[in-house]
Amino acid sequence: MRITILQSDITTRAVDAIVNAANSALLGGGGVDGAIHRAAGPELLAACRKLRDTDLPHGLAPGAAVATSGFRLPARWVIHTVGPNRHAGQTNPALLVSCFSESLRLADSLGAASLAFPAVGGGVYGWHGRHVAEAAYDAVAGFGAAHPVSALELVEFVLFGPEMEQAFKAVFEQPR
C-alpha cells in the first residue's frame, strides 16, 4: 500500500473513497464535514438522514464508520467516521485509532483501491496533530499487517494546513 501526505482539499481528490470527519448526527456540520456535504450535494444529506431513520437511529458512535455514495464528489464513496471529542472528555486514543482502522476496513470491503483521509479528530475535536498522525500510522500499520492482500493500493492523508502536514510527515517518515 502506497501512502501519500499532502496539503489539499479532500473534496477534489480523484480517489475511490474519501473519509468524512463527521459528527455523530451525520447531518453535516462545519470544517471537513461541512465541505464534504456542500461538495457532494443535497443527496448526501438525504442518504445520511436515511441511515439515521433506519440503521443508526441514535447516530454513529465515535470510532465507528459507515459508507454512503459520493454523489457529486469525484470519489465514489464517502466513509463517515466520528472522532472522539477531547473537549467532551473522550480522551481514549484507541477510539481515534479506530476511526482510521474502521475506515480502512470499510474501504477494503467496498473494493476501494484508493482512499483519502482528513486529520480525523484534529479540528474542533481538539486532538493535537501529532496524536492524530500517530493514530493514523498505527491504524495503517495494523491494517497492513492484518490484511496483506487488500484492494487498497493508495492511502492519502489530505490535510488542511502546513502544521498538520508537518505533524503527519514527522510521524510517517520517522525510522521504525
TrEMBL record:
<dbReference type="Pfam" id="PF01661">
    <property type="entry name" value="Macro"/>
</dbReference>
<feature type="domain" description="Macro">
    <location>
        <begin position="1"/>
        <end position="176"/>
    </location>
</feature>
<dbReference type="InterPro" id="IPR043472">
    <property type="entry name" value="Macro_dom-like"/>
</dbReference>
<protein>
    <submittedName>
        <fullName>O-acetyl-ADP-ribose deacetylase</fullName>
    </submittedName>
</protein>
<dbReference type="InterPro" id="IPR002589">
    <property type="entry name" value="Macro_dom"/>
</dbReference>
